[in-house]
Design brief:
267 residues; six-stranded mixed β-sheet; four-stranded antiparallel β-sheet
Length: 267
C-alpha cells in the first residue's frame, strides 16, 4: 500500500483518541450516541448468536468490538446493517429505529457496512468499483464525490483505470473503505479490515480509520481480531464472549487490564 493513501501516523491517532477521552468528549452515555443498540438478540435458524447485547457508539468516535472467533462480532455488524434480522431488542441511528428495515433502507439512513474479506469486484476497474458506492447518491453529487475520493485516497486516483484484481491487499482495503464512504454514511461498520495484511500495512489502515474519525467526525464501529491495534486508535472498547458483552470501557482502560486482555483478547 503506497504512502499516498494518506496515513497520518498511529501516534497522532492514538493521541487524538486519548485527547478526546481526557477532554470528556468520548463516549459518555446515550445522549450523544449516533448508534444505540439495546438488548439485541440475533442468530441463524435455531442457533442463537447474540444475547441481550447493549452498546452505545457516540458520534464521532471509534468503538472497537473485540473477542475470540465465534463471539458474535460479525453477526453484530450484519444485524445492524440488516442482512441478519434482529430477534429482539432495538437498534437506532440518531434516534431512528433500524429494526425490521431492509438493508437498502438502512444504507439510506446512513449506515455503511464493509464486510470481512476485501470485497472488491476484481474484473472491474478501481473507478468502476468506486462507482458502485454512488448508487444511493443523487446524480448531481456523483462527479464531485468521485473527485473527492481521489483527492483523499491518492493511491486510488493513480490506479483508477487498473483492474481491482491487480491491487495489493492494502490497496484493496482502501478501495472498499473508499467505496463505502461514497454513500456519505454517518456510521461506518468495519469487519476485520486488517485481515491478511502485513503489520506495516495494518498500521496504515488503522491510521486511515483514525483519520476518518478525526477529519470528518465519522462514527466507526470496528470489529477486529487484532485487538492491540484496534485499541490504539479506538475511543471505546467492547468485548464480546459467546454473544454477550463481558466488558465495555474506555479503550485505554481495556488495554491496561492485563487479566481481561489475556483471558479474552490474547495479548
Amino acid at each position: 500500500m503506497a504512502d499516498n493513501g494518506g496515513a497520518a501516523g498511529n501516534g497522532a491517532a492514538g493521541n487524538r483518541a486519548a485527547g478526546n477521552r481526557a477532554a470528556g468528549n468520548g463516549p459518555t452515555g446515550r445522549a450523544g450516541s449516533a448508534l444505540d443498540i439495546r438488548d439485541l438478540a440475533a442468530g441463524y435458524g435455531n442457533v442463537a448468536v447474540l444475547d441481550n447485547v447493549t452498546i452505545a457508539a457516540a458520534a464521532g468516535t471509534i468503538t472497537a468490538v473485540l473477542g475470540a472467533n465465534g463471539a458474535g462480532k460479525t453477526t453484530l455488524l450484519r444485524t445492524i446493517s440488516g442482512s441478519v434480522r434482529a430477534r429482539a431488542g432495538q437498534i437506532e441511528i440518531d434516534g431512528m429505529s433500524l429494526v425490521r428495515r431492509a438493508p437498502e433502507e438502512i444504507a439510506r439512513a446512513g449506515v455503511a457496512h464493509v464486510p470481512e474479506g476485501q470485497g472488491v469486484i476484481t474484473e472491474l476497474t478501481v473507478e468502476e468499483n468506486l462507482r458502485l458506492g454512488l448508487l444511493l447518491r443523487p446524480r448531481r453529487e456523483r462527479a464531485a464525490a468521485i473527485a473527492d475520493a481521489y483527492q483523499r485516497f491518492g493511491v486510488l486516483g493513480d490506479r483508477r483505470r487498473q483492474a481491482a484484481g491487480t491491487l495489493s491487499g492494502g490497496e484493496r482495503q482502501i478501495l472498499v473503505i473508499a467505496r463505502a464512504l461514497l454513500s456519505a454514511p454517518r456510521v461506518l461498520l468495519l469487519d476485520e479490515p486488517s485481515l491478511g495484511l502485513a503489520p506495516k500495512i495494518v498500521a496504515q489502515v488503522m491510521d486511515l480509520i483514525a483519520r476518518l474519525r478525526d477529519e470528518s467526525g465519522l462514527t466507526v464501529v470496528l470489529v477486529e481480531q487484532n485487538a492491540r491495534s484496534a485499541l490504539e486508535i479506538a475511543d471505546k472498547g467492547v468485548v464480546l464472549n459467546l454473544g454477550r458483552v463481558v466488558a465495555e470501557s474506555d479503550a485505554a482502560e481495556l488495554a491496561a487490564d492485563v487479566g481481561l486482555r489475556r483471558h479474552y483478547l490474547g495479548f
